[in-house]
Automatic annotation (TrEMBL):
Domain of life of the native organism: Archaea
Gene name of the record: trxA
Protein name: Thioredoxin
SUPFAM superfamilies per the UniProt record, alphabetical: Thioredoxin-like
Native organism: Natrialba swarupiae
GO CC terms, sorted: cytoplasm
């Protein structure tokens, strides 16, 4: 359990409601990890508890984009497979990875931009 308070409930992954919403999340927070996922995707389901833990344990905000609901947004980021993870730091896209990454690798990736 964290003792920090964040604006908006950022200890849980935030569902993204569209391109403007994603832009607002990226603008409001220093480090944002965006998970482009699909509900039918097995690796996405395996990654979900990892991302929930990272949202609570790190200073990064985790945002989730359902590619079936937001196909144009996924296309704008060149998402060709799910899960695709896009990391933003200080409003800029700094990393993009396709496939489920292990928790320790994701934590190291985030901490590289939050320290």
């Amino acid at each position: 359990m964290t003792t920090e308070t964040h604006t908006g409930s950022t200890d849980d992954p935030l569902p993204v409601e569209g391109a403007d919403h994603l832009d607002a999340i990226v603008d409001e927070h220093d480090v944002v990890l965006v998970d482009f996922f699909a509900t039918w995707c097995g690796p996405c389901k395996m990654l979900e508890p990892v991302l929930e833990n990272l949202a609570g344990e790190t200073d990064a905000v985790v945002a989730k984009v359902d590619v079936d609901d937001h196909q144009q947004l996924a296309g704008a980021y060149g998402v060709r497979g799910v899960p695709t993870l896009v990391l933003f730091a200080d409003g800029e896209q700094v990393e993009q990875h396709t496939g489920a990454l292990p928790a320790d690798q994701l934590r190291d990736l985030i901490e590289g931009y939050t320290e």
